[in-house]
Design brief:
five-stranded mixed beta sheet; DNA Primase, Chain A; about 10% strand; DNA primase DNAg catalytic core, N-terminal domain; 16 strands; five-stranded antiparallel beta sheet; globular; about 600 residues; alpha+beta; Dna Topoisomerase Vi A Subunit, Chain: A, domain 2
């Protein structure tokens, strides 16, 4: 156990799961618990529930669940020890020091330290004689001294050994450098710098840790950008460039651009709510993170074809989150950085005007759609109108729908009411389809998840159900747990996952320790915690817990007397007769 139990005990008493979850999800009271929209998958009707009484959450939609630590792990993308630390911080407690140097947590700490040291080194190199060209490059892009320092920009020398030698002098081992992806190993096993002769952009997480780098080459050599690959602290699909600054300036709106330079230029021009993906297309995970900090996203990608394709893809990912979308197209095929520079002192004001006048995603898609049809030809006009009505129907606000209906009516010279009827029809259809899709998804996930964690469940359905009900009862009722443990041997459990959970509970009860979900949280994987929270969620409170426990134990006793299908095949007549006799007695 990496963290002392007394500490978890204290943390448990100070962390209210409802309060912690509420800072991420809007919760409403429902019966004894709370419900809200799941932050881990996109949905319109709430299937995410929190039980403050028993300290767990569970989503009936995507199947995730667990205690307050599991919640923080998932939503903040942390490991167990980091999540405990964050919760402790909230509660005004300090995690005892000695477990910092264990396994993965220790490696992560070393990588953060190596990255921080590397960032400082790169920044210093910018002002060394070797960094002259890089500094000139940044100044040519009109970056001020203040901006360069604010973003901690730097330069990686071309010699291939300077960073490695520097890190070595600071006590970092070649293995640590390689695991941080700051160095690669040569054929004879010597480390050399991964980034060479590049302008360096440190990537910083929300807690201020340097988690990786983007490096831009100044010449025409490919690749133009080289990014830190996946490391224990860096996952490019779960982070956004400059979010650590932008989150405090968002005020409900974030601007999403393509590159580091665009972000930096916009921040310098006063648009500090700008972020970028890290050299990849926008991911689901990034969309979920974005949703946490704003209600509206302005997509501002390059005007070239690649940029427009990326815009269309980003719309598809962002739309289901329910975020309001706006599309800003910079005129004359420029990127935002070029646009602001081209207009000198007027740049920021002009960009603000573009921002205020940017259309929503439906407008963007209507324009694309329009270019595919020749509306002079009647058939094509009808086809366009049908597609346009479907698109307009995706707007949730009917007033907003009416704006487009009017425009289409004027443009195509078609009766407004006729278009409105079409749009409303598609709206109803889409809402129904959406609800059906959500339902199907839930069904699919429920069946898939049972197979994954408890693979034996389908063969011992009756026993497994009793096992789960009993475990749920024990995790929420200390007296029942204390009375069951001495009476029930783990061998009575037919499925090994449930047996494992029982053994963990039993071991704790045996030495007089407390046993709730949070106490056993450190032992189980995320998927296992999902399954255990699922047991709690699907077995609501029993009116007479001791009687219920006796009943479940009886089921387990009965089931363990039964022969398995394999045993029946292999059994002799005598055994089979006995088995039949038992079944008869049970029926009575
Ligand atoms: Zn969910």
């Amino acid at each position: 156990m990496p963290i002392p139990e007394e500490f978890i005990q204290e943390l448990k008493s100070r962390c209210d799961i409802a309060e912690v979850v509420s800072s991420y999800v809007t919760l409403k009271k429902a019966g004894r618990g709370l419900v809200g929209l799941c932050p881990f998958h996109n949905e319109k009707s709430p299937s995410f529930s929190v039980s403050p009484e028993n300290g767990f959450f569970h989503c009936f939609g995507c199947g995730v669940g667990g205690d307050v630590i599991s919640f923080i792990k998932r939503i903040e993308n942390l490991d167990y020890v980091e999540a405990v630390k964050l919760l402790a911080q909230r509660a005004g407690m300090t995690v005892p020091e000695d477990n910092r140097h264990e396994g993965m947590a220790a490696l992560k700490t070393r990588i953060y330290e190596a990255n921080r040291e590397a960032a400082r080194f790169f920044h210093r190199q910018l002002y060394a004689p070797g960094g002259k060209e890089a500094l000139a490059y940044l100044r040519k892009r009109r970056l001020t001294e203040k901006t360069i320092i604010h973003f901690g920009l730097g330069y990686s020398p071309g010699s291939r050994f300077e960073l490695v030698n520097h890190l070595r002098s600071k006590g970092f081992s070649p293995s640590e450098m390689v695991q941080a992806n700051l160095a690669s190993l040569s054929r004879n096993g010597n480390p050399f710098d991964r980034f060479s002769d590049r302008v360096m952009f440190p990537i910083i997480d929300l807690r201020g840790n340097v988690i990786g780098f983007g490096g831009r080459i100044m010449s025409d050599i490919k690749p133009k950008y080289l990014n830190t690959a996946e490391t224990p602290v860096f996952n490019k699909s779960r982070n956004l460039f400059a979010l650590q600054f932008a989150k405090n300036k968002a005020k409900g709106r974030l601007i999403l651009v393509e590159g580091y330079m665009d972000v930096i230029a916009l921040h310098q021009a006063g648009f500090e709510n700008t972020v970028a993906t890290l050299g990849t297309a926008l991911t689901q995970e990034q969309a979920t993170i974005i949703k946490r900090y704003c209600d509206e996203v302005v997509l501002c990608y390059d005007a070239d074809e690649a940029g427009q394709k990326a815009t269309a893809r980003a719309i598809d990912i962002l739309r289901p989150t329910g975020l309001k979308l706006k599309i800003l197209t910079v005129p004359d095929g420029k990127d935002p950085d070029e646009f602001i520079k081209a207009h000198g002192d007027q740049g920021p004001a002009r960009f603000r005007r573009l921002l205020e006048n940017s259309g929503n995603d439906v407008e963007f898609r209507l324009r694309k759609l329009r270019s595919r049809f020749n509306t002079e030809i009647t058939e094509q006009r009808v086809a366009f109108l049908t597609e346009a009505a479907k698109l307009t129907a995706t707007l949730e606000n009917t007033i907003e729908q009416d704006v487009y209906i009017s425009r289409l009516s004027e443009e195509l010279n078609v009766e407004k009411n006729a278009i409105r009827q079409m749009v409303r029809k598609y709206s109803r259809y889409q809402n129904r389809e959406y609800a059906r899709k959500e339902q199907r998804e839930i069904q699919r996930k429920i069946s898939a998840r049972d197979d994954r964690i408890n693979t034996e469940k389908t063969f011992h359905l009756r026993a497994a159900n009793a096992e789960e009900a009993l475990l749920a009862l024990m995790l929420t009722n200390a007296d029942v747990a204390a009375s069951v443990c001495p009476a029930l041997s783990p061998e009575r459990f037919m499925t090994s996952f449930n047996r494992k959970v029982y053994e963990v509970i039993r071991e704790r009860i045996g030495r007089g320790a407390d046993c709730t979900l949070m106490n056993i949280s450190g032992v189980f994987s995320d998927q296992e915690m999902n399954a255990i929270a699922g047991m709690l969620a699907s077995h609501p409170r029993e009116p007479d817990p001791p009687a219920a426990a006796r009943e479940y134990i009886q089921v387990l006793e009965d089931e363990s007397q039964m022969l398995t299908p394999e045993q029946i095949v292999a059994a002799d007549d005598q055994t089979l007769m006995e088995q039949l006799q038992k079944m008869k007695e049970k029926k009575k």
